[in-house]
Amino acid sequence: MALTIRPAVPGDAGIVLGFIKALADYEKLAHEVEATEASLDAALFGPSPRVFADIAEWDGEPVGFAIWFYNFSTFLGRHGLWLEDLYVVPEQRGRGIGKALLGVLAKRCLDEGLGRLEWWVLDWNTPAIEIYKAQGARMMDEWTVCRTTGEDLARLASAAP
Q: Model pTM?
């Protein structure tokens, strides 16, 4: 059995969307998925992509993915990577696939001189938290996520000159 991890390529949007939907089901957030194959294709493979995906394959079959993008730390004065989503199909878990996806991103950070790799994990997802801690991740419990969407985003935008 062989694991490979490759960058997503045009034509992979359906695979990526399938993983997004599976992750959303697992997180009980399927009702929030608005992404389509077309929107993912445009975001990942358009003229100036700002988001990227890696596909994990076991014996040539897609079994997991990571979606990531570059961020910036003003304190470090350097870019980093933000891991938006990581997912491995349940029947393939325990084979080191998630760790390998994280390893590819960590290697990218080192190869490109980036300052850090960051991501969120839901506080109830104990299996993932334990895996991440075992890989050296530090939980940033002192930070609170802020988000605006929809009407609130529009209202905030109206404050712009």
A: 0.93
